[in-house]
Amino acid sequence: MSKKFLVYSILWSLIQLVEVNCRITSRRFDHTATIFNNNLYILGGRNLNYADIVGKDFFYFDISVALNTQKLLWHQVSSINNVPSHYGASFVKGGANNNTLILYVPEHIQFSFSSPEIDFVYTFDPQDNSNNAWNIPKIIGNNAIIEKFSINIIRKKFLTGIVDYYGKIYLWGGIKRYEFDSDMYILDTTNFSLEKRNITNITNSNLPTLRIHYGATLLPNNKIIYIGGYDGKNYLTLEQVYIYDTISNNWYREITTGIIPSNRGKLSAVLGLDGQKVIIFGGSNNSNLKSNESLYVLNLTNFEWYIPRISGKIPKNRYYHKANVIDNYMIISFGRGYNQSIESDILLLDISNNEEYLKLQREVDFHNNVIRFHGIANSESDNDRNEVSDFFGFNDLTNELKEYFEKNEKNN
């Protein structure tokens, strides 16, 4: 093992927060997960049968209070009757005072577009305990964007909304009306003005191909990095990543080196604590990714991929999950690909140590509240090894892409 690799090594400790039968929510994927203060808010999603029956669930857990690792206490949030059932949405922290949660809802009507879906942005005030915490803001901007007919057009799903340091949400890619979309929509959450940028008109050979289910995160320089994804036919390579400059409206392509992860989509990506690394977890392609293929780090100084040193057993690979960072920890929530009887719906990964050493961490300290280590994931059973996971794109996108695939098959 090279010294260079050792320098790049990172300590990962897995602490499982194991729920018991009193959970108030069911397993889900394609949900949203958002940090506000010390709460992790979970909203919407689909169940394992690809039905959005959990699409109106809204709950959180508070990591600033005492946590029992064998009983993760979820708190139900007030009624959300005015918010449509949904999945594949974006839910970010923003607003004029950065104290509001902003929900961007994708198109919901699957096969009939005759009924208008006018409202696509909802706001939630986490500090309002009444039933009026949810509101529908008035969107301002170009009439061509906001008129009743066009509202449906900008409702895209299977994208990742990224909020910058000024409260603007960047909505790129995704699917609308069964078609992959190239436009970049920018919603300023401080005044709810909407802007559309047609990036296909940019004279730039570094434009990314159209995609969904990519990983994305905001960088310290207010640029956004996009990693992997799915183009309706293939899972995309991580041999190159794309960076969008939010100020100049320009794209840059960076060729990566090192131990390059396999092609994948439905992955998560977060910025490391030092601002110099991007950490990805999970994802899927046309085969079942193994546990040792799920964790990678991209060094942003030279765009070199490496596999971090691991303390403890890596959990099973997940996809359609969400990842957030709070304090020194990367929080993985829900998703597909894991056995709920063996692993928790919530995983914590310690990403604080950039030195090369291994130490199994037995407890973590959240705001002076010590959470004792409960256990590393058990070994996979024979049934788990033989499990045929649902990783192929045709099943994942189901009816939303039915027409798209039929069209492709005819052309081929």
UniProtKB/TrEMBL annotation:
It comes from the Eukaryota. The keyword DNA-binding does not apply. InterPro entries: Kelch-typ_b-propeller. The keyword Repeat applies. Keywords: Kelch repeat, Repeat, Signal. Gene3D superfamilies: Kelch-type beta propeller. Pfam families: Kelch_KLHDC2_KLHL20_DRC7. Residues 1-22 form the signal peptide. Transmembrane segments: none annotated. PANTHER family: ACYL-COA-BINDING DOMAIN-CONTAINING PROTEIN 5, FIBRONECTIN TYPE-III DOMAIN-CONTAINING PROTEIN. This is Galactose oxidase.
